[in-house]
Structure formats: structure tokens, C-alpha cells
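Late entry, written up from scratch paper. The run itself happened at the end of the previous shift, but nothing got recorded in the book at the time, so transcribing now.
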Amino acid sequence: MEPMEENGWAPSAVVWAALGAAAVFEALTVLETQDKTVRAASPWQDDPYDVMVSLAQFTVPMLALVIALRLLVWGAPGGADRARQTLRAAGVMLTLAGLTLASEWAAVVVRGSFSVSGWASVLIGGLVVNSVLTVRAAASLVRCRRRHGSSGGWRHDWLGDAVIVCRRVPVLRRWVGPDTAAWVRRRTMTVFVVLSLLAAATVTSAQAIGERWTDPLLIAWFLLVAATSNLVFCVISNTVAGFIARPPRTRLRRIGEASVVAGCIAISVATAFRDVLWPVFGSGSLTSVPALVALTLGAGLGTSMITAALLLTCTRGASPRDHDGAASA
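Output as recorded:
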């Protein structure tokens, strides 16, 4: 059993509170994005606000699911690591929700002249409730994390717990074991890329069908933007919460991965603020799909190259291998 906190909650109880806040957030987010009548009244239906909403509506439930599954093995060996990592994952989940709520509040402030009636008033009321629950859960999480220290010296990761859960399921027992976990750890980045593409393909298919897109370039661009944002989520959340403990990597590989992530972030930012950025590079309104592709992907490529050059310069002379081991993502 984990020790009780000052406020009388065990770490698992704090995590359940975060999951409750995430459940309310997801319910309202699905309503405001999937119902056309509700979406039409939403103050944050357009970019740059909608980019954060679109990302969070998929990543928050994904984190909530893996956190809830890990609670199934809460009493297994490695409880100290499990508590710290789960609290950090809950922190990532609440951070994504908090950033989304902040962008929605920004939309309300910027678009202060819109009519606050009907569904708009319901959405703003939900925003208030969401904000209160998220702030309260985050405050409890911060208090609890102070008791569990830093992430240094982790000996267990989420992947090991996933193996424990799978070994309890007869159908999966034959296919999942320590060898499978070791294979995933050696190919973590490849696994992240594949998962990001699969998730992006699902979202892109739904978007293309719902919006009746017929332009292959637009569909391919949306697929790439969704995949890059998913990849950023995978890498950063793994770094924070230690889902998969990665073996040591060469300096050049770490620089390459960091540069790719920086470029992916730039693509998402350029997509969100494309209407603001376009006058710097072109004239008129941004209505051409090729121009949209050039602006967003060009920003990603340029950022990736600059990041690689800076990291190569700053880390010149460093050790050729970085031993991050199980204590790092």
C-alpha cells in the first residue's frame, strides 16, 4: 500500500480525481466538436483555438485509459516508480486539458462580442465547470507529487506493467512477454511513428468523409499534420512519464529525434496560426492548398534543420553515447 498524503488521499485517489476531471473534460469536448449545431455556436470553433481542442480530444482519453489500466496493477512490485510515473502522466493529462481550457477562455475573451445564448451559454458554463475541476485536480496532484520526489532512478516502466496485464489474459498470454517488451524498447521511435500514423489515418478518414474532401493533397496534408502532432504527444509524454524505458542512444540519434520533434511542433504551430503567418510570406488570403502545404511543412522543415544545427554545435565534444537507460524515456 502507498503511504497516505497530508490531505488523507493515497496517490491512487489523487489519480482517480484527475481521471474524473478528464472524464468531464472529454464529455464536453466531444459534445462541442462532434455535434454540428453545438459546434456552430462554439466561440472556439476556429483556429488557432481549435487546434488545441482537436489534439486534446484524442490525447486526454488515451492518457486516461492507460492510467486507469495501470491502476489494475497498483500493488505489483515497483510501487514507488509506479506512483511517481502515474502522477506525472496524470500531470501531462491535466496539462493538455488545462492548455485547451486556456485556449477556449482566450477565444471567449477575444470574441467577446458574440451572442452568449443557447448552446454558447451552455458551452461557457461547461468551460467554467471544467476549469474548476481541472484546477482542483491539478492542485491535489502537485501536493501529492512533492511527496514522491524526482524521476531519477526509475527501475520499472509502463511497458512492464502492460506485460503483467496481458499475461493475465489467456488470449494475449501466448503473444506478449518480456521478449516483446524488449523488442518495443529497442524500437520505441518506430513504434511511436507507426501508432501516430495509424491514429492520424483514423482521424483523417473521419474528417475527409465528414467534410466530403476530394482533394488528395489536402487529405495527405491533414494526415501528415495529424501524425506529426501525435508523434509530439508520444515523445514528450514518454519523456515526462516514462511509458517506455529506452536503451542508450547515440548523440546523433538523440539530436535527430529532437530535431524531428521540433519540426513537428513547428508544423502544428504554423497550422494553428497560418492566417497570421501567411501575410509574411504571401499576399491575400490563404486559400490555396499548395500554399498551405508549403507554409506549414516549410516551417517544420526549417525548424528541424535549425534545431539540428544548434544541437550539433552546442553538444560538440560531448560523450558519444547518452546513457539514459530505464531512468529516462
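Confidence is low (pLDDT under 50) at residues 1-9, 322-329.
(Scratch paper discarded after transcription.)
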